[in-house]
Each structure stands twice: as structure tokens, then as C-alpha cells.
Amino acid sequence: MTERIEGHGGELALAALRAYGVREMFTLSGGHVFPLYDAAYKNDFPIYDVRHEQSAVFAAEAVAKLQRRPGLAVLTAGPGVTNGISGLTSAYFNASPVLVLGGRAPQFRWGSGSLQEMDHLPLVAPVTKHAETVFSADDIPRAVAAALSTALTPHRGPVFLDFPLEAIFSVGDAELPAGPDIAPVEADPDEVATAAGLIAGAARPVIIAGSDVWTGDAVDALRAAAEALTVPVFTNGMGRGALPPEHPLAFAKARRVALSGADVVVVVGTPLDFRLSFGDFGDAKVVHIVDAPSQRAGHLQPAAAPAGDLRGILTALANHPGGRVDHGDWVAQLRSAEDAAKARDAEEMAAETDPIRPARVYGELRKVLARDAVTIGDGGDFVSYAGRYLEPAQPGTWLDPGPYGCLGTGMGYAMGARVTHPDRQVCVLMGDGAAGFSLMDVESLVRQKLPVVIVVGNNGIWGLEKHPMRAMYGYDVAADLQPELRYDHVVSALGGAGETVAKAADLGGALQRAFDAGVPYLVNVLTDPADAYPRSSNLA
User: Fold this and answer.
1) Omega cis (within 30) before 189
2) Where in the chain are the domains?
3) Does the keyword Transcription regulation apply (predicted)?
4) Neighbour tally for 537: CB within 10 Å
5) Which of 444, 523, 461 is CA-nearest to residue 489?
6) Mean pLDDT of 360-376
7) Which one, of 309, 316, 280, lies nearest residue 293 by Cα?
């Protein structure tokens, strides 16, 4: 027997949200959405507020990523929604099931010039899976349930609803939604068998596993497939940590050797984009395993492209009944390259130079980060080093902006991570450029007693732009920041704490104090502006 619910629009929305596992709201206060606050307040539903709407959406995305369930941001009409669009777009590129609920000017007066009157849908539709205006209070539970089902259906992604004032403030009644019932997408068994045969028969196969392996709860299945077929595994995004660093098939440093020598490259749960040379691995055959047919690459033709539930596909690979080539020599070759690269990295991470080299920052961080610490990257040049030198030990512990590359995720991601894991270390790695986007939201963290550690690599430049521009043109413009700026003073002024570190020998003590502080604490590390991350441009 279905249950009927009655209340104002905010209460009807909250009932549907709870049925779908939403447990908190991220927002910046606005009158258009007061009924949602009223419902949350009266029902002990946690509200976390921020100083910029994009941080609310990023916080909701962090919850969605880390907990593999919907995250919620509530934004007021007009500029509230437009300020959140970068967060929505990041969630779209990252396949994060985020629901943004927006306020909207009253429909009965539409066109008369009400405060913040604008039609949001044309702006948000290109970066959401579904966008809708809900004109009736009675229709709110249905719309919330349908939107969340869409967000959770692979390929996952953000959704948007807005409510005119008269809809959200009115009283209505409706059936209570039953909650999510998302049927897995079944892959074509012939396509899966083809992929399994290619991998098992390859002499030098490699697996690259990405974020959807975590999101699709396929980590154990990935390990089983890798072990059954004896295939070395590299990871990116939230796939990092799917195999712990000590696992005999886990690799991080030998990717260039692996991809240049592989005869079959298996890419699982991540697009064939600029991070993976657009799928161009020389003469190697490409197997692209995705969670939905829409994610198959359109710019090349893989040798096999199973699309569907990743757990099911990877389990089928593990259970492949055919013959298998011995990959022991190939794994040993890559292990030798991996060990040599680790030895080189160890030297760089121990460098005693002043100004401090970014590698040394990560060498010291590795000593204090717990295995279950949540590490957040918000930046370009400085965070590129994090990808090289930090090796997450557990899945679901690494957050970065993803392929959209949007700066400013840091404080929102930190809020979502701290709400998700109140007892773990949460560490934000931030370039000094990225610090300009969201550092004011330290005040939100302080006020709501959400301690995190922030490590700023402060080289006084936009590193990924200054050096390439100078190489191209012989000069650079719009690439300098104030040298040695005291970002730690900003955090202290907002109620947190921090310090500036100029000598490599002082890093360890500063980081330990940061993790012991119990408040948002920023370690402002003066790094060498000449030490740019060595990689080619990702623009093409």
C-alpha cells in the first residue's frame, strides 16, 4: 500500500529526498528556497551553508563521489543557480549523481520583472542529464524521484529542478516515492567474450581503471579479473587505490613503459580522452569497457567495447573459460621499471633544496597521511605532482576536478569529505592560483566545525601557463601572482590557523602540527617557481 504525504513544497521534496538516501543539504541562503530550509530544520535534516554557491555544488559532488549516492545542493534563483553552473558541469564530466534544487521567480507574475527572474533551464540543460521546472506542489515528490532515478542510472550524472515561489510555498499532497530501483545495464555477452579472449590471449596486456570502477562498486570485481588473468593495473581518478600499492599487480610509475610495450590496452570506466592520449596506444589493440553504451568512444573503433554493469563485465572476465597466456615475464618487466622509477622518485622526494621543490612536499606528506586519508587535489601544476608522488592505499579516497579541470573545487570537496568521514584525515592540496577561487569558504568550515588540512604550493605563478607560454613566445603575460603571499594569514583571519614554510627541513613539523590542530589549518609552502611539472600541453 502506497503512503501519501502532505505538506508544503519543501516538506514534499524532503520526503522524496530521504527515500532516495539523501542525508544532508549544502546551500547558500536565499529566500526563494525557504520552504526547503523549513522542512530540513523541523526534521533534523543537516544543513551546511557556504559563502559561494559553487562550493555548495562541489560539496554535494564530493558526497556523491565518496558515498556513491545522491548529493544535494539547494540554490536560490538567478545568480544562485548561475554561480553553481561550474559545479554542475564538473559533476556532468565526472558522472556524479548530484541533484541541484533551485528557487525560481513566481510563475503567475512571469515576465513582469520579479527579483532574480530568469529561465534557468536553457543554461543548465547542456550540463545535466535532466532539467525541469516543477509548477505544482503536488508534483514535487514525483519530480524529485524521477530526477534522482535519472541521476543514479548509468551513465550517472547531475540533474536539476527548480520551483516557482507559488509551487514551493504551497501545500500539496502526493504519494511517497518508493526509493531507487535502478536495473543494471546488461552487456552484450558476445562483446564481453571477445574482450576476455583478447586479454587472455595477449602477450603484454595492461588494464587502466578509472572512476566508474569505484562509482559502479566494481573494485572487488576489478581485482578478481586482474588476478585471474594476471594483468598489471594502472588507475586514474577515483579508480586510484582500487589495488593497494603493495599488490603485485598494482603499478603507478611504469605507465609509459607499459603503454609503449603493450599489445592490448584495457581501459575500464574512464573515457579515452586527453589523459589517455585519446586512446592512441600505437599498435596495441584497445578494449574499452564502459558502464553505458553512451560512453563508447566515438573517435576510434576499439577491438572490443562491452557496455554495461562493470561488476558483471569484470566478473565475466575473471571467469573466462578459455586458455590464457602466461603474463609473468611481462609483469616482471614492468615491476623492474616500476622499482627504478620509485627509486628516482624517492630521491626527488628527499631533495634538500631551498626554495622547496614540490616533490619534497609530497615526500613529507607521505609520512603523515593515514592509509584511509581523503586527499583532494585543487590546482594545476602543484596538483600534477600529487598525481605522481601520492599513491592512495584505499579506493574512494582521492578527489580531483576530473577531466573538466575546474579550479575552485577544494573547499567544497573538503566540506563534503569531512561530512562523509568525520574521523579521517582530510587533506586539500592546492596551488596558489586555485586558492583564489574558494579559500573564503574556510570560514564555512570553521563556523561549522569541519577541520581539514590545506597544503598550498605557493610559487607565485600560474605554473602550467607561464612556462609553456614563455617556451612558445619567449615571453609570458597574465601568469604571475604575488610572490610569497601569506595564505596562512587569510585562514587565520577566518578563524583557522596556519603557517608559512620556506625551508624543506621545516616541512615535516608543519604538516604534523596541521593534522593535530583540530581546526582548518593551512600550510603555505614556498615552492620553487622554476620547478614546473614536466608534461606536454593538454590543450589539443
Assistant:
1) no
2) 4-175, 189-333, 351-526
3) no
4) 10
5) 523
6) 97
7) 309
Residue 402 gets the label, from left (phi > 0), alpha (psi -120 to 50) or beta, of left
What's the sign of the alpha-carbon dihedral 93, 98, 99, 104? Answer: negative
Q: Report residue 368 as a C-alpha cell.
A: 603523515
Q: β-pairing, 130-133 with 98-104? A: unpaired
Write the pLDDT tens digit of every residue in 59-96. 999 999 999 999 999 999 999 999 999 999 999 999 99
The per-residue pLDDT for 536 is: 40
Cite the beta strand spans of 28-77 per DSSP E.
Answer: 47-49, 71-75
Which CATH class, in words, describes the domain spanning 189-333? alpha beta
Across the range 467-490, mean pLDDT stands at 96
- Residue for grid cell 507559488: 166
Q: What is the pLDDT of residue 85?
A: 98
CATH for 351-526 (1.20.1250.20, 3.20.20.70, 3.40.50.970, 1.10.1740.10): 3.40.50.970
* pTM of the full structure: 0.96
- Contact between 68 and 215 under an 8 Å Cβ cutoff? The reply is yes
Let me know: does 195 contact 266? Beta carbons within 8 Å.
yes
Helix (H) or strand (E) holding 453: strand 453-458
Contact 425, 517 (CB under 8 A): no
Q: Which three cell numbers stand for residue 299?
A: 573517435
Cα 150 from Cα 143, distance rounded (Å): 11
Q: Please report how many Cα atoms fall inside a 13 Å half-sphere around the Cα of residue 451, on the Cβ side.
A: 15
Strands (E), 71-185: 71-75, 98-104, 130-133, 159-164, 171-175
Say what the pLDDT of residue 1 is: 56
Calpha distance 517→521 (Å, rounded): 7
What pLDDT is attached to residue 75?
98
At 57 the three-state DSSP class reads helix
What's the CATH fold of domain 4-175? Rossmann fold (3.40.50)
d(CA 189, CA 212): 20
Helix axes 53-67, 85-94, angle to 10 degrees: 20
> What are the Cα distances from residue 337, in Å, to 129, 180, 235, 247, 357?
42, 46, 17, 16, 24
Does residue 25 contact residue 36 with C-beta atoms inside 8 Å? yes
